[in-house]
Amino acid sequence: MQHRTHVVLLHAYSANNSGDGLLVDLSVELLKQAFGDTTRVSIIAADPASFPQYSDVYPAPVLAEHGMARIGGVASVVLPIGNNGRTRELLRLLKTADVVVGVGGGYLRARNCMEILKLEAGHLLQMRAACLSGRPVVYLPQSIGPSMPAEPLRLHLSGMLGKFAAVFVRDDRSAAFLAHNANTHRAPDMAVLDFERRAAQIMTRAAKARPGVRHVAFVLRRAPSWTRRQRERYETATRRLIQLLRETCRISFVVQSTGRGNDDVAYYRSIGIKGDLMPLKELLVADTPDVVVSVRLHGALESVLNGVPSYHLSYERKGFGAYADLGVEEWVANAADFDPDKVVATILASGAIREFWTKASSGFERIRAGRQRVIAALQAALST
């Protein structure tokens, strides 16, 4: 009987954040393309119940806990790794794997002391377990590197990543952070990699689009850990953008995340937006907009994957890297300092939608090559 490849997929978060759920789905699809449809993928998730479509999901040490149990788990990081019960279970599972894979995303970063503690207690614990397993490890496209000056953490993080078979990064800052690690490779975001595979389907949908813009959907979220001035500027500019587009377009507000600490509904209510709020995934099918304006990167990319151009108001480096890989850099701006009039001019310009797809389609070969590099690295890891 032919051996069935077993992959353990680390660092999944929650499908209640549809961007994180999308990353898991895309990772599983990529793994089955690399190793075959019968591949067993065991998922380690902070919110395992949010992935009912998968039968092989396990709670992540510390991150899957709630309340005092999570606080106790955070405290346990000062103890040897085997002292945590769920970590022992993870180690046992990892030792049964042929390959260990880190899901794509942006979880290996920290901007302040609290985020450093969460990084250490949650994701670095999983990384240490991967190192101890003795199995080959590949990390799918990431944004990596603490943005606050914490040299011991930087050295610890880059040192562990340097032990893996391959680490893919999705932006140039991450590549610079790990430039001394020979196993680091630049590749597009997971959703961008999937763009090429679904190109024919995407372009068929895009061809049916109206030439003009009459319906714009917004995917908004609370501003991240910015200064008070940045948050005020973001909210003022966002309100102005909505007002300008409302003069000629129907506006919809949609939700992409209801997960822990990422409740988009609560944010909409806080800025006075009432009524029912449809998930982005449903709106793209039931009431397809002409354009999506998304503050969440994977809200933007999910829209593109469904044949709807999206202007991304990016609050992190990952957005600029993804849109550069897609070839549509004119459709991304810094969410903390964007010009609403310029965004409107880009979206409503004559022929804007046609030009978006012309530029995006020109990057197919580059994206295809990136996907093949990732698949080759996974297959090489399996053969070691």
TrEMBL record:
<protein>
    <submittedName>
        <fullName>Polysaccharide pyruvyl transferase family protein</fullName>
    </submittedName>
</protein>
<dbReference type="Pfam" id="PF04230">
    <property type="entry name" value="PS_pyruv_trans"/>
</dbReference>
<dbReference type="InterPro" id="IPR007345">
    <property type="entry name" value="Polysacch_pyruvyl_Trfase"/>
</dbReference>
<keyword id="KW-0808">Transferase</keyword>
<dbReference type="GO" id="GO:0016740">
    <property type="term" value="F:transferase activity"/>
</dbReference>
<feature type="domain" description="Polysaccharide pyruvyl transferase">
    <location>
        <begin position="17"/>
        <end position="316"/>
    </location>
</feature>
